[in-house]
Write a structure and sequence with these properties.
The chain is an alpha/beta fold. The protein has 17 helices and 23 strands.
Length: 501
Amino acid sequence: MTTTETRVRLLDNYVGGRWTAASSPETLPVTNPATGETLARVPLSSAPDLDAAVRAAREALPAWRAVSVIERGRRLFALRQALDARREDLARSVTTEMGKTLGDARAEVARMIEMVECACAVPTTMQGRILEDVSRNVDAETVRQPVGVCAAIVPFNFPAMVPFWFLPFAIACGNTFVLKPSEQVPLTQQLAFEILDGLDLPPGVVNLVNGGREVVEGILDHPGIDAVSFVGSAPVARLVYERSAKAGKRVQALGGAKNHMVVMPDAVIDKTVAGIIGSAFGAAGQRCMAGSVVVTVGEAHDRLVPSLREATERLTVGDGLDESTDVGPVISEGARDRIRAAIDRAAEDGAEPVVDGRDPSGDLPAGAYVGPTILDGVRPDMEAAREEIFGPVLSVIQTGSLDEAIEVVGRSRFGNGVSIFTESGAAVRRFRHEVQAGMVGVNIGVAAPVAFFPFSGWKDSFLGDLHAHGGDAVDFYTRKKTVTSRWFSSGQGSGKYFVEN
């Protein structure tokens, strides 16, 4: 451990309405991927730390559930205002610890705030249903009630937004909440919880526990947690889903992706190139909605690739805090080396790196940099076409028809997002009807939905029944209770009403 590392901030957990030191002495460095600088140290909390957070959440549940749904909505309005006041601080925190450009980080924080705005509608979205006279003088109604203590395990690539896919909806519905942020990027949620701390929520409504695998496994097994949300890789998503379900928990597990972008011969090339570049290389490709495979149809390949190559070569690689940077670093040097190795293997398999970012040029500091890379001549059976690289690497596959393109997309075990670039309504109608993916973009590179619609991955990209945010969020964070009632003093339908003393 260097002298610099011994002086950096040691992060705390947030449990029961106050900042609390973790009981475990084990820590990890939080590193700026653009410079290698150690920003802080994050504790690897242990089972007793998680248990304290769950107990605080369980104890807070009756009082928070008793707060009126309108008042809970008002607290979220206050949260929205407080986040908006700190949006630039939040964006700079995202860039510093994760690496994405400030433009990407600002867009992420805007989506974070949008999630809160959507959750503010809870007095409407949490409403139940009623049907009078299901039988003679018998009424039936369904009401929604909180699930209980809910937890979320979130990834490194969206330190601000993804935790807020879950937190505002959970507490809006009257649940209490435990968050486990990624140990690689814990600083942004430290700031978010400072903001939450200023809202005067009852102690224990929201809790934060830093840590690694021990905390994750504890969340999956803890009998005091009723629902688990997860975002991460496909193998871990399956483990989370199976283990949580075995423990009797409600669970939603969002896994990996290999998103395709189909380009038809009639696509508007300049707009298509801009959409592809933003999708493939935004956040250095570290997004579950990143378009990582272009599937060209017919002559679209020769129309697209020269312009795509030229535009990609103009992108600048550097520190995301520099406003002129187009592509920031990847999350770590380990990720950098893994991505470079994937490009090496693709070239060995016969792909042509028409833009090669393995050794980006320029006056770059010692950071985790991989430049934008385009691999042409990729076959559907290649690893580069099948496996999630999670970096700024775009594979190009040529097909002869829309039928063949749809078949290529359908071979993937993932089904998160897909896009088509065309001016043909008939092609769009067929594509959106047949393609096996949960989110479809038409002339849009990143088909991620706004907060009022669910993030609806398919296949190995999602395990569960109810998706993140949108209407699914309220369904996930509430249980339905149906009440069937009869009142004998109502006059049995005679029109006469009696009052019993």
